[in-house]
Design brief:
With 135 residues, the chain is mainly alpha-helical. Helices cover 59% and strands 9% of the residues. It has one domain: Arc Repressor Mutant, subunit A, CATH 1.10.10.
Length: 135
């Protein structure tokens, strides 16, 4: 950690955070933000790949992820494009421009292999958890 950040938490507690009071609305907002992060990155990534079996826009992906309970991109829709660009660079997805100028994304063969491999790992993990629960 940078030297200048080491005492930040203590300094904030002693100064500006000391008199801070959160309203119920603010508390709910904070809890909602935490809930957005409740899905693991791997789970979110698998869901993204599953949705990209069919060609979709970033906007469609954001809405479909929210339906699946992944709210990470709900209020920050633009941040999904950084993830999509990263996956495009990795070769797991490909982008193309639609007839009305929208950018669409879809899995490549490499992306399908990654999805299959990820699905196998999730399946094995669920079997392990079921086995432990039955004991």
């Amino acid at each position: 950690m940078e030297e200048r950040l080491k005492g930040l938490k203590k300094a904030m507690k002693e100064t500006c955070m000391r008199e801070l009071d959160f309203s119920e609305t603010m508390k709910k907002s904070i809890h909602n933000s935490i809930a957005k992060e409740s899905f693991s990155e791997q789970n979110m990534f698998i869901n993204l790949l599953q949705l990209l079996v069919k060609e979709r826009t970033g906007f469609e992906l954001t809405r479909l992820l929210v339906v699946r309970g992944i709210r990470k991109f709900e209020d920050e829709e633009g941040s999904i494009y950084a993830l999509l660009h990263e996956q495009e660079q990795a070769g797991t997805i490909i982008a193309s421009w639609g007839p009305s100028g929208e950018k669409k994304y879809q899995l490549t063969d490499k992306g399908r292999r990654v999805l299959e491999k990820s699905g196998e790992q999730v399946w094995r993990a669920s079997l392990t958890l079921r086995g432990q629960a039955e004991r």
